[in-house]
Amino acid sequence: MTTAFITHGDYLLHEMGADHPECPERLGAITQYLASSELGNRLKWLAAQPVSEKLLEKVHPVEYIRWLDSLQPEKGLAYADPDTALNPHTMHAARLAAGAVTMATEMVLGGEINNAFCAVRPPGHHAERSIAMGFCFFNNIALGVEQALSHSDIERVAILDFDVHHCNGTVDMFQNRPEVLVCSTFQHPFFPHRYYDIQRPNIINSPLPAGTTGSEFRRTVERDWLPALHYHQPQMIFVSAGFDAHKADPLGQLLLDEGDYRWVTNLIVEAAACFAGGRIVSVLEGGYDLEALAHSVHTHLEGLASG
Ligand SMILES: [Zn+2]
């Protein structure tokens, strides 16, 4: 079992101003905790490469990509939306974030690794085809999915998203693509207030009220995700792994802990073994309490590495 940990030092150059929760220190906390642990030695550490422009233009309109590139300032910050800012390094980091996921996808499909975790920023699951929002510019996981589906033998994939926020961008991308199952648990009502009630057979939305406990989260995942996975029979599983549903997180009001993240990781690993030849690409989304984030990612990686 080889689990890759894909990241890049240049992710730290993107920052959105003092006191912004989506800060470079998030990745520092993850990598430092991992490097100091026994698990860190068992992972294959890799540096991300930029996404191909051709694939990027397949997922996002070229006008949108050019608009973001032109918005990037030479110094200071420029705002794509009130929460989502660019500094002089943002577009480079965004291309490397998407590139980590496409690189992981190719390596998993090529059999070089069994699964991968992409420790990236900026995150991606709020980025719609033509809208940057919620700290996201390019939809990293959608780029990995398109890369996977470009392989003739991959016809069905699943995206599982346990971030505290609904994956509006991912739903925007795949609402009319029945070959892509999207399952999302999320606090509701809550940001981003988009697509949470869409009715499509391949979109499984599981809203959770503020204060939802780990055991209620587990019951919801078993009730909603497992039948959908059995029906869809995905050949590869992508995970939008946000850890902001942790009870210590300053943005969310759900009550998950590391044990719940280990539980859901084990469920994903078992589903991947059952349907998808063990193929998993997991991608960091949110998670804003640095200690809870570092511990939760470690737990998630333990599950992936034991799969
Ligand atoms: Zn989130």
From TrEMBL:
Q: Which GO terms describe its molecular function?
A: histone deacetylase activity
Per the UniProt entry, what is one GO biological process? Answer: epigenetic regulation of gene expression
What range(s) does the Histone deacetylase domain occupy? 20-303
- Matches recorded under Pfam families: Hist_deacetyl
Family listed: Belongs to the histone deacetylase family.
Protein name per UniProt:
Deacetylase
